[in-house]
Amino acid sequence: MNPKYEQQMKKGVLEMLVLKRLESEPKYGYQLISELREESGGMFTLKEGTLYPILYRLEDERLVESRWSEPKGKEVSRKYYGITEKGNEELRELTELWRSFAAHVNEMTGNNKVTGNEEVQEG
Amino acid sequence: MNPKYEQQMKKGVLEMLVLKRLESEPKYGYQLISELREESGGMFTLKEGTLYPILYRLEDERLVESRWSEPKGKEVSRKYYGITEKGNEELRELTELWRSFAAHVNEMTGNNKVTGNEEVQEG
DNA sequence: CTCCTATACTTAGTATTGCTAAGTACATTC
DNA sequence: GAATGTACTTAGCAATACTAAGTATAGGAG
């Protein structure tokens, strides 16, 4: 199948996933790329050209704030992104939107029980 | 919240939903718009300018086939779209892709077990 | 020192796609 | 015949994942 569909499905959820990853603590770009790749089993393997524009958009909307690290010794300087209060709020709303959206789509694709504890008749 | 996110989330799933609606029988454009709106509780309220380009793309990919109705009496002529064998196959693959995708996103948003019996701390 | 690799960030440009807005055509209603 | 409702078409816009190239620094190989 066309990888096109998977690419398109990602639209609108990557920002939510990035915000979610920043919920616990500030992180830098490459770190986010690694974590998203590992935790998704490879499904969310973002290139820099995908992630950084997302971070810039989030920053423009004041959902995250960035600061450059002061490199200790010969460390490379890194730009850490931390979620703001507004970002936390947006994350909650985005998560709700996603759940509602996914529930509707599941229902309309015949996948109508998504509560997670039913036995699903496959095929 | 920005309606932008909802718009973006739709990308990549509308084609699946349209194919799904054609699984049972051929339908025409306006009919699909009505059904999608009704069955989604309004979430998928497509304008013609959204639906028809989708149908044309599906037709280009040989996932659906269209034929003009022969209007009986003074009926308006309608263009009926029917799913092809290739379309059925694509629908199965798309549905699987969606389930896998949604499962990953749910897991990564901490929505991994929604058994429905947890107590949720509301903000 | 130069060359290569790895890390880390930036940015210009492309393709896809949902949407807006306008248009055509026909039938019915007023 | 003007307005309304149905049905389809299309030009153009906006948003965004991706490609591809670039900058900069550090460390190692030669």
Strand order of the largest sheet of chain A: 1-3-2
Are there runs of chain A of 5+ residues with pLDDT below 50, and where?
Answer: 113-123
How many helices of chain A? The count is 5
Fraction of residues in H or I helices of chain A: 40-55%
Cα end-to-end separation of chain A:
19 Å
Q: Tell me about the biggest sheet of chain A?
A: 3 strands, antiparallel
The largest chain-to-chain contact, stated as pair and per-chain residue counts, equals: A-B, 44 and 44 residues
* Gross geometry of chain A: globular
Question: Can you tag this structure with a few keywords?
Answer:
mainly alpha; 3-stranded antiparallel sheet; DNA-binding; 123 residues; homodimer; 10% strand; 3 strands
Present the secondary structure layout.
The structure is a homodimer of 123-residue chains.
Chain A: H1 3-10, H2 14-21, E1 27-28, H3 29-39, H4 48-60, E2 64-68, E3 79-83, H5 85-108
Antiparallel strand pairs in A: 1-3, 2-3
Helix pairs in contact in A: 3-4
Chain A binds a DNA duplex (30 and 30 nucleotides) through residues 4, 7-8, 10-12, 14, 28-30, 46-50, 52-54, 56-57, 74-79.
